Amino acid sequence: MKNIKDIADQVFAKTYARNPICLVKGQGATLWDSNGKEYTDFLAGIAVCILGHAHPAVTDAVAKQAAKLVHVSNLFYTEPQTLLAEQLVKSCFADRVFFCNSGAEANEAAIKMARKYFKENGQPQRYRVISMEHSFHGRTFATMAATGQDKIKKGFEPMMDGFDHVPFNDLEAVEKAITDETCAILTEPIQAEGGVMVPFPGYLPGLRELCDKKGILLIFDEVQTGMGRTGTLFAHQQMGATPDIMTLAKGLANGLPIGAALATEDVAAAFTPGSHATTFGGTPLVTAAALAVLVALQDQDILEMSISVGDYFKNQLLLLKEKFTCVEEVRGLGLLLGLKLSMEGGPIVAKAMEMGYIFNVTQANVLRFVPPLIITRKDVDGLIAALDSILAEQQ
Q1: 186: which residues sit within 8 A by CB, 6+ positions away?
Q2: What gap in Å lies between CA 287 and CA 85, rounded to an integer?
Q3: φ/ψ of residue 96, rounded to 5
Q4: What residues does each domain of the chain span?
């Protein structure tokens, strides 16, 4: 058999600095490469495989649906899509759902919905969106413009107009940025790609108050924080604020491509036939998988596990902080955790992978841990021991 890495390096666009292993199998929180080496997965496809790999309920749902109906287009009703939408609106503030294929597309839909809402309601001058510095909302032109990281935009200028950026966790800066042209505030409840930044307790409620005061919309990007990642189905449900629009993706179908923009009845009314569409959004196959995920999160103790194991994990990371001067800060909530270092995190990630543990680094020096929600304390203990050994060599 040809060497997969050699073939890949010849044929792929060079958009990823890939790790030098070929993963071939997964089960639960464990992955195996083509040489049979075993890894404990603390990345979960970047916060995607929340139930772990080859979860029986998801596998069964996909297999059964694939044998019946994979795709028919959104010109028709299908049962899995309808049942998933019903369960999602029952679980949150929203009344309506638009399905798409990714987080970026969900955020595009949210931005379009917010703009059109004001056009339909006699305020066509309102089109600008306030988002946060260090945020990440996607790599399409609109979501790239909304993203508050220059490195994401480099080489693609000029950026699309209509986006203003302010510091995260700063209500005064947000209020100053609101003008008669502002239509919405867009933020992640926790900035994941931005370094696992958790806001102060009154931040999201403060944003809600500002939106109500100024007559604008509040959009929460829960692409990475949603689906139980922080201990509640959606992160905002434990932060005291409710949005007008929420976006989901990543963990929604445990690895199959899906995104969703959810909104209140009033706001969603801006989307009428022909105003927005997608060919593959919400196919029977992916919505069957997502429905199995949602049922698992509601009927099992997984959310409780994400809290209890997450708290245990965070406490173990705090012990590393006490022990090693190179650890500057422990961040996060539930099973979205970060370890800020005083040095580059890349070599730590590489060394840990050699020892059989997979995670990644964001903002160059923040180790990010987003494991499957089924991760165990024993798995955490193994990772902590590996990190202890690696960090000891840096002292």
Answers
A1: 107, 110, 111, 129, 130, 131, 132, 135, 137, 146, 219, 221
A2: 9
A3: -135, 150
A4: 1-36, 57-299, 301-346+375-395
DSSP conformation letters of 145-193 = HH---HHHHTTSPSPPSSEEEE-TT-HHHHHHH--TTEEEEEE-SSBTT
* CATH class of domain segment(s) 57-299: alpha beta
The 8-class DSSP code of residue 196 comes to S
**DSSP letter (8 states) at residue 322:** H
Q: Measured between alpha carbons, how far apart are the two ends of the chain, in Å?
A: 43
The residues annotated with a catalytic role in the active site are 136, 221, 250
Domain 301-346+375-395 sits in CATH 3.90.1150.10: yes
Q: Which of 162, 114, 373 is nearest to 266 (CA)?
A: 114
What residues pair up with 356 in beta bridges, in sequence order? none
Whether pTM exceeds 0.90: yes
Cβ(269)–Cβ(118) below 8 Å: no
Segment 355-371, tens digit of pLDDT: 999 999 999 999 999 99
Strand locations in 194-244 (E) = 217-221
